[in-house]
Design a protein that fits this description.
heterodimer, A: mainly alpha, B: 167 residues, mainly alpha
Chain lengths: 91, 167
């Protein structure tokens, strides 16, 4: 048995092929689970992050310059209405 | 419980090595590894922290291999072990191309019965304790010991019959 154990140790030391890249495996698992790819969802989150930041900064600027904050709300509503149209046109 | 990404980054290498040694095929090992992670992710709520994640993943993978082998056996795809032991005598060319010993071990491992193979691989390639192997195989420690003993004996018979080692 010692001889067999030694051969097993040699085989172990020889190693095995490497698995695919972890990102590839994660993408394949997400596909099987029916989930969106991680990179895409992460990008979407970061895409939307500047929007609330910009809104807050604009509100602060409006208040600082003594402008009516309700005007900002009107702009926001206008932006919400035009965004889908602009997106559809690929603007 | 780790996220899926962490789970893959930390555990895919030992899991792939285990499955590769169990199956002897890279593509099948990769497919079963992905399936293991899918099952683990779906069953994450049933995971009990008292068992190490690695042990838990090995246990899912071992079950998948066992199922796959049963399906193959039902379809008659497996070469029975006894037929392999009395394989046709090698020609001079085949002798010249004979694999060196440890590669012969690697080739012989997937021919062992799946329970013995699992126990041997977990013990000798992944340093799992008898207790951990018993957890993976869901059997008593005594059964693990006998599977390892019988697996080694069977492996020796295989290697002797293929003239890799002396009787």
């Amino acid at each position: 048995m010692k001889e067999i154990e030694a051969l097993l140790q040699q085989d172990r030391a020889a190693g095995v092929p490497q698995p695919p890249d972890a990102r590839y495996t994660v993408a394949a698992i997400n596909r099987r689970l029916g989930r969106p790819p991680v990179a895409q969802s992460a990008r979407r989150e970061s895409d939307w992050l500047p929007v609330p930041v910009a809104l807050c900064l604009t509100l602060v600027a409006f208040l600082y310059f003594g402008l009516n904050p309700w005007f900002l709300a009107a702009m926001l509503i206008a932006a919400l209405c035009t965004t889908p149209i602009l997106l559809r046109k690929g603007a | 419980m780790e996220t899926l990404e962490d789970l893959v980054v930390h555990h895919q290498e030992p899991l792939f090595a285990f499955l590769y040694r169990m199956c002897g095929e890279t593509n099948l090992a990769e497919e079963l590894m992905q399936e293991t992670f899918v099952r683990a992710f779906e069953a994450a709520k049933r995971y009990r922290p008292e068992a190490a994640i690695r042990t838990w993943l090995f246990s899912i993978a071992a079950n998948l291999v066992r199922d796959r082998w049963r399906r193959r056996a039902r379809r008659g795809e497996d070469l029975p072990l006894d037929d392999l032991v009395i394989a046709s005598p090698a020609t001079a060319e085949e002798d010249a191309l004979r694999l060196i010993s440890y590669e012969a071990v690697r080739s012989a491992l997937p021919l062992l019965p799946v329970e013995q193979r699992t126990a041997l691989i977990l013990r000798y390639y992944h340093d799992l304790s008898y207790d951990e192997i018993a957890h993976v195989l869901a059997c008593p420690i005594g059964t693990v010991r006998s599977r390892i003993h019988n697996g080694l004996a069977r492996l020796k018979r295989l290697l002797v019959s293929n003239e890799v080692i002396a009787p």
